[in-house]
Design a protein that fits this description.
Elements lengths: L1 H29 L3 E8 L2 E10 L2 E11 L7 E9 L4 E3 L3 E3 L6 E10 L4 E10 L3 E4 L3 E2 L4
Antiparallel strand pairs: 1-2, 2-3, 3-7, 4-5, 4-6, 4-8, 8-9, 8-10
């Protein structure tokens, strides 16, 4: 009986250690603080995702699709709100391929040099208007 109890306790210890290691591993993944948003309107759909940093993001991806056959190019960019309340726009990324086509970019990064409070994705149709996502708060600031 004592031998069986010792063996069961040893097994429980191994299972507990494995579970703790798995939780620590998943906590490391969760601490990467992923972010993402989309914005769409008449003639355009765009989406982006990224990994937050305190002063911006890294490992970002963005895509914008022209959903109208109106000969108007579309673009996507980010609006960045600092913890001071200032708002800046990043360089627009254009899709001039035409109706139904998508352009995408990977490996995007942004560093404001100071704390970034939130980001908004904005998609636009040239000479027609823009559409914004909700502000996405930076969980690291």
């Amino acid at each position: 009986m004592k031998r069986r109890l010792t063996r069961n306790l040893r097994r429980a210890g191994v299972v507990t250690a494995a579970a703790a290691a798995a939780l620590m591993g998943s906590a490391g993944i969760a601490s990467a603080a992923p972010g993402g948003a989309y914005a769409s309107g008449t003639g355009v759909f765009g989406s982006a995702n990224w990994e937050w940093t305190t002063s911006g993001w890294k490992n970002g991806n963005a895509a914008v699709r022209d959903t109208a056959c109106d000969a108007k190019p579309v673009y996507i960019h980010f609006r960045v709100k600092t913890t001071r309340g200032s708002i800046y726009s990043t360089t627009p990324r254009w899709n001039q391929q035409g109706c139904g086509e998508t352009s995408s970019w990977a490996g995007l990064a942004y560093d404001a040099g100071y704390y970034v409070a939130a980001v908004q994705v904005e998609t636009c149709v040239k000479d027609k208007g823009c559409y914004q996502s909700d502000w996405q708060d930076n969980p690291l600031t």
